[in-house]
Amino acid sequence: xxxxxxxxxxxxxxxxxxxxxxxxxxxxxxxxxxxxxxxxxxxxxxxxxxxxxxxxxxxxxxxxxxxxxxxxxxxxxxxxxxxxxxxxxxxxxxxxxxxxxxxxxxxxxxxxxxxxxxxxxxxxxxxxxxxxxxxxxxxxxxxxxxxxxxxxxxxxxxxxxxxxxxxxxxxxxxxxxxxxxxxxxxxxxxxxxxxxxxxxxxxxxxxxxxxxxxxxxxxxxxxxxxxx
Length: 228
What we know:
Elements: E1 4-17, E2 20-33, E3 37-41, H1 48-55, E4 63-68, E5 71-72, H2 78-88, E6 89-92, H3 104-109, H4 119-132, H5 148-160, E7 166-170, H6 178-195, E8 198-202, H7 206-209, E9 214-219, E10 222-223
Parallel strand pairs: 3-8, 3-9, 6-7, 7-8
Antiparallel strand pairs: 1-2, 1-4, 4-5, 9-10
Helix pairs in contact: 4-5, 5-6
């Protein structure tokens, strides 16, 4: 049985600035299996965040094809893509992106407001997600009342509350101290190990990469062969 979650074929992305063209990605072929914890590494400007954003449906390739669970994501309309993203993708950003006037509970509940779940069902999902990241005692706290590590844990809870197919993390420890970073990476490892969550993480930190099951490197928009 095929357990492929993500496939890219000939994926390229060109950004145009006036008369200039910058190739962010060139002919990227990548396969990600169910339950894989993939780390994308590379120097600044190597294309790793561009690749992450294309797989997450946040950006579109200039050329090539992206398939997730056999579905051709690259050819979807904008409306269809937005609906697909709500179901299949949870995203964790470097800067947390929490809404400061909402409590931890309300921040995590946001993605569920787009579903048909009842208020009680939403509450159960939110509390389960916050408990998983160790913040069940902080559900009524606002972001300003939390440490950076706790804010990122809220962000992870928000990303997983809909049980997405893919959990995407863009430099999730970039704004954290070493201790908080290790806690976040342990949570991601647990999600991968105990819940078979498929994770794609961008990082420049070799210590973070050690938590992944597969590491791939990008250089000048090109995906290097496995093992390089």
